[in-house]
Amino acid sequence: MAKANKLEEIDIPTWLRGLPKAELHLHLEGTILPETLVELSQRHDATPLTLDAARALYIYDDFPHFLMAFKAVTERLQTADDFELIAYNMIRDLAYQGVVHAEVYISWGILARFKPQLPIPSVMDAIERARIRAEREFGTTILWIIDAVRHFGVEEAAHVFRLAAELRHQYPSIIGIGIGGDEARGPAEQFREIYAESRAAGLRLTVHAGESTGPVAGPASIWSAINIGAERIGHALAAQYDADLLTILAERQIPLELNVTSNLRTGCCPALDQHPIREYFESGLMLTLNSDDPPMFGSDLLSEYILIQEAFEFSLEQMREFAANSIEASFLPPDRKLKLMRDVELYHR
Fold first, then answer.
1. CA-based nearest residue to 33, from 81, 83, 79, 93
2. Looking at residue 203, which CATH number applies to its domain?
3. What are the tens digits of pLDDT across the range 52-105?
4. Does 225 reside within a domain?
5. Is residue 13, in this structure, part of any structural domain at all?
6. Out of 211, 282, 310, 328, which one is annotated catalytic?
7. In the annotation, is 279 catalytic?
8. Three-state SS string across 81-150, please?
9. Structural domain containing residue 335
């Protein structure tokens, strides 16, 4: 009885905030808060947005409107200094949530196609300045994952990934690659050779797969991601429809970067109680919790932890397991992993 009373005294959101954790599926361009958008607008718009007008851009009804909202926000990233601003603010906000490490996607595929006036090395210089300054101030470490847009084709992805392999010697914080975008128009299998080349160059491999549950971009997309060597899989919502796939994911312990609120807000999952996270957990899958594009979805990583704990009635020890998984699934060097895993293990014992 005394133990139960002690548990009841715990403020769970505060406990979850202090729990050391990593964020492994986060898009830099999707971390822009309305307040930061106002600052960017003041830099670039003849008539700057008010805070209310900025907040209105984050309200949408469906996935097409989300894409329009995302475009309206990110088109104000016009200079390298803009990227420095959003990277610094991102790390500050992660630290506040108890995030000790994050591996963050930056879309060189979008930069290369739509922002040729912004040389990628200048953007890297800018976000590296932010990373170094913010890591010193807040303690949260950052590694970058270079993202290509799969439906732009293999040739554009190859250009992006080869540049990543070249620049990682100048920027050691570049740790890996990934492909996002329309799974149906850019099947992972098409990227087998460039993924093998990237692995040989020392880059770690991630793939967005199974975010949609449709017949083309469903379980088959996840199978393809596994077949081209994905070390982590983003979303994997569609795995629930393939028992053999669930078995393989459990046996191989391939980490899944789950994004529950994102799946709800984009309509990929119709309702919270229909999300397969509990089924996945009980099937022994290697799960991590993530926020994807947090301000766009009205969430952040801490909010995800709070939501998942409450909605699916995970115990605090199970939430500790999610946090430990996030460290174990990271691309950190072994010594840092061991230190952070120990921190998770000892947290409020």
1. 93
2. 3.20.20.140
3. 999 999 988 777 788 888 888 999 999 999 999 999 999 999 999 999 999 999
4. yes
5. no
6. 211
7. no
8. HHHHHHHHHHHHHHHHCCEEEEEEEEEHHHHHHHCCCCCHHHHHHHHHHHHHHHHHHHCCEEEEEEEEEH
9. 23-343
